[in-house]
Amino acid sequence: MLVTLNDILPAAKRDGYAVGLFNTVNFEMARGVLQAAEALRSPVIIGTAEVLLPYAPLQDLADLLKPMAERASVPVVLHYDHGLTFDACMLALKYGFTSVMYDRSTCTYDENLQSVAALTRIAHAFGASVEAELGHVGNAEGGAPETEELDLALFYTNPEQAADYVAGTGVDALAIAVGSAHGAYRLPPKLDFDRITDIASCIATPLVLHGGSGLTDEDFRHAIRCGISKVNIFTDINNAGIVGMQEGLAIGKHSVTDLIPYQVAAIRTATEAKMRLFGSVGKA
């Protein structure tokens, strides 16, 4: 069934688990993720991000993912992640996405607040939920070395500012910068768990952890205990699909159709592992 973040994240926040967003840029990824969600009776978030649009155009993905989400027997949010432009977010809403993230985290605080507030009013009129980012979650592959850790902390989310931001924008979920990064990590990440706790105590809005691929299981558990309610995953399932295809090739499968079941199965297995880790099993 197709739902919004508001249908699944408040319960996650209340009961101390997290729901995974698994970006799904083709049919095989979507099948693997949704099979995992239905098998484990877990709510799930699927979708894409603006940076991934070169691999799968937005309207094509909407035409693929929306019917699959509607047919699913568990709650499924169709989420447009890291929308960098107002126009792209509007297209996502037009195509039937039930949630959008408008990422203005590289702007000044006032610009971020004002532009996200404007989009939130529109998205709510569509019946969709909105996520935003305060602070800035960078790119792991282009990240700074450990000697620059104190400088990186300047981009972390300020708890008091987060309360002001949520009040001013009306967003339904807030992505926070606490030491994670997007992509594959060059160095082990160091999450600021105390900061997560402080932010969670300041606002009632569910918190989101971006850059989840590459964190340890205990990192995830601790972050969720501190107040994270949504975790974004892409690299892990993207890599799992390749491993599955390699397994098929290793036993003599050479056609695309012969490799598809291996890809789907590997993505499903990787997704199920994350759902168990996040504690969302049986919450649908």
Question: How would you describe what is shown here?
Answer:
α2 crosses α11 (256-278), α4 packs parallel to α5 and α7 (159-169) packs across α8. The chain is built from eleven helices and nine strands. The protein has one domain (2-278): Aldolase class I (TIM Barrel). It has helices at residues 9-15, 27-40, 58-71, 86-94, 109-126, 149-152, 159-169, 193-202, 217-226, 235-250, 256-278; strands spanning 2-3, 19-23, 44-49, 76-83, 99-102, 129-134, 173-176, 207-209, 228-233. By secondary structure, the chain is α/β, with parallel strands linked by helices. An eight-stranded parallel β-barrel has the order 2-3-4-5-6-7-8-9, surrounded by ten helices. The radius of gyration is 18 Å and the shape is globular.
Give a nutshell description of this structure.
The chain is an alpha/beta fold and 284 residues long.
Total domain units: 1
Beta-strand residue fraction: 15-25%
How far apart the termini lie comes to 10 Å
Please tally the β strands and state the result: 9
Low-confidence stretches: 140-150, 182-187
Biggest sheet character: 8 strands, parallel, barrel
Q: What helical percentage do the residues reach? A: 40-55%
